[in-house]
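Session log. Operator J.P. requested a structure for one protein chain; no other inputs attached. Running the standard single-chain path with token output.
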Amino acid sequence: EPPGNNPTMAPVELLRGVLGMMLKTKLLNHDHLMSSDLKRCLSFFALVLMGLGSIVGSGNYVLTGLIVSDYGGKVAVLSYTISMVFCFIIALNYAEFSALIPRAGSSYVYAYVALGEVWAFVNGWNLMLEVLVGCASDTRAWSSYIDDLTGETIQSWILGNIGSLEPFSDYPDIIAFLNVVFVTVVVASGLQVSLYIIVTFLGVNIIVLFFIFVTAVIYGDTSNWTNDTIDGSSVLSTSALCFYTYVGFDFISVYGEETKNPLKTVPPATLICVFFSYLLCAGSSAALGFLVPRWAISGSVSAFAKAYDFLGLTWAKYFVCVGIIISVWSSNIGNIQCASRLTYAMGQDGLVPGVLSKVNKRTQAPLIGTIVVGTICALLALFLSYEDLVSLLSVGSLVAYFLVSASLLILRYTDLTKNMFDDIPTHHLNSYGTMNRDDPDVGTKKCFVNCLRHLNIHQVDEYDTFVRRWVALVAILMLIFAMFVKYEITSIMDWEPLMIILSTIIVIFLLAACSVLYMLPDKRSPTLPGFKVPYVPTLPLISMLGCCVMGTQLSQTAWLRFILWVILGLVIYLISSRKRIRDLAKQLQQDSSADEGGIVALVERRTDQ
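Structure written below.
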């Protein structure tokens, strides 16, 4: 039967075409990597300051206070240490990608190159959640310190005249809303203006932290520290929350398109920011744990202010509050900057409206994108509470870090870097300038079967598809292992036979899957410049497993909100892809008509004969 007469052919072909579009990867040549409409003005020192200004915000003051008040200073320091180890390993992955792909968009672009369009959109949408919620939570904390300085008169006035916002938050935070509006105006003025303000505010932040350390030495009591006990389960759950305080080191790679020499400056700046932010967060936790007993600051968002109130140091309270208020601004500016650069990158790729990627000629910054993300962030700060924002932010960060670690494995064990920097036949590219995975010369659908037929995996000629599927298998096994540890750890510790057998089977399968990656050759060319992560695949696998374990420690409510956010993003993605889907359907219809016409002509020739 001719293909044109088969009623099921067109929908099936269209579905295959849409899936191919969603899974296509992005190809970047060297000229594209280094060209940009944005202004390259950031030096190494400026990049470090931008990173530290983005990282050291409310998490260092508010989340530290919440953890110390609930679990004590020892647990807080240990939790920051554990989360820092995982963050440092993840920062290594970001460092390699940022040297190879110095483009705005950070993990969004990395996922586009390694995993495909739909995963890139999910990661970009997730990163958008991370930066917007980070800014909103910082602003909520900023507002709480303002309210504490005024004796909570602002909150009382809002509750009395406007009312509460249960179940979203206690009250609409108008002060936080206005703060985000102010920060958006600053960011819209251009990168240079933002840089000057961040440097100034970061200097104030460091002075405040130094003051906290000094007062802890003078007024601290060692009994406040020694009376605290360490609980293993508490350390694990708080370590997951502590990821929030390190959010910002991945923002450094967002500025790759605005950095003078991204190849040499972005990787070390990323690692330096993680290390110094750990010193500041762990130091402030230890100082707060020495200053007061944890019951004195229980349940307070403005814990440092409450601590100095408890000690009777009113002058110190006002000094620290003013310093914290000023320093949180730098974090807010960094978040809005990152979000606007992300919409710029996604707008250029056509995954969000292209108007968001338009660059203002005077400021050389995406003005419309900045206004849009600032408006969304202001609304989040107005309606959601600090605790809800932090839990949602930790989920988004862990998912982004997990995908970047998986992308690094694919980067190393496929011909990704070769395709990125070498010329390839034009028939491998579609109209979007990306790899066509359906081309038989690019990949093979039977790669996994071919691998099973060979005892030596290195003899397989084309196994890019196999590598992607195997990394996906390892990721699924890690998620199963993390869920099992979360919900069955008590049974395992009690030596229940069934749980011991199941856990052993899961561990064996996970180790076997990971061992296959050690058998694969590293396909990154040794002549490529830039930072290279050592001990691959060990370090990426550790970071993936750490993200899974940390993620299972977060609340189910946070995950439900995250899933709803992803579903909303996928709906927007499909709506924005309508034009491309229509074009694809027309192309398939033309191809089908051409094939049908060829078959009819062949039948007519045979009839004549």
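Operator note: The chain has 24 helices and two strands.
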